[in-house]
Amino acid sequence: MSASSRRKSITASLAIALAALLALTDQLIKNLIVENFRLFEVRPFLGDVVKLTYVLNDSAAFSLGFGFTGIFTLLSSAAAIALIWFIIARSRSVGWSIMAGVLLGGVLGNLTDRLVRSPGGGLGKVVDYIQIPFNFPIFNLADIAIVSMAILAALRIMLGHSVGRPNKEENV
Fold it and tell me: Is residue 172 part of a domain?
């Protein structure tokens, strides 16, 4: 195996491991919320800035698309498969691979809820728990990963970085 192939394999393994760690951490936090909170219960976390509020969400990010849980399950499944393919077969960039791993972890965190939480079968509701001021929708760790990686990807593309290819500063 060449040094380049070995580096790509290590990068892909790191991205997949990061995705697994993020998805597991997301599920651990959600399980702690479900076990220790009543539905709609609010508790201060960082004063009035951040509160923990247990809600169930059958929509997408920012509470868009209520009632389309089955469609979100299909889209999330397709996204997870595409991200795994990108990490393993397409990306030659450490940065893009790591970003895809974080995004994959977020997608898997919320997809797991849709698959295993009540009522199950791809129609489960996502556990959300982070509430910030300004009447912002309540969200979770997986949502943070998804939205932050989407923003970072958009910024990188606007700066002229080719998707999946190393930029000038990256030695891959």
Answer: no
The predicted model gives 111-136 an average pLDDT of: 93
> 3 pLDDT band (50/70/90 cuts)?
confident
Q: Whole-angstrom Cα distance, residue 129 to residue 126?
A: 10
Confirm whether 26 is a catalytic residue.
no
Task: Give the pLDDT band of residue 157 (cuts 50, 70, 90).
Answer: very high
Q: In what order do the strands lie in the sheet with 42-46?
A: 42-46, 50-57, 126-131
Measured between alpha carbons, how far is 88 from 70 in angstroms, rounded to an integer?
Answer: 27
Asked whether residue 171 is assigned to any structural domain, the reply reads: no
Domain count, the chain: 1
Q: Which among 26, 58, 113, 143 is annotated as catalytic? A: 143
Q: Known catalytic residue: 143?
A: yes
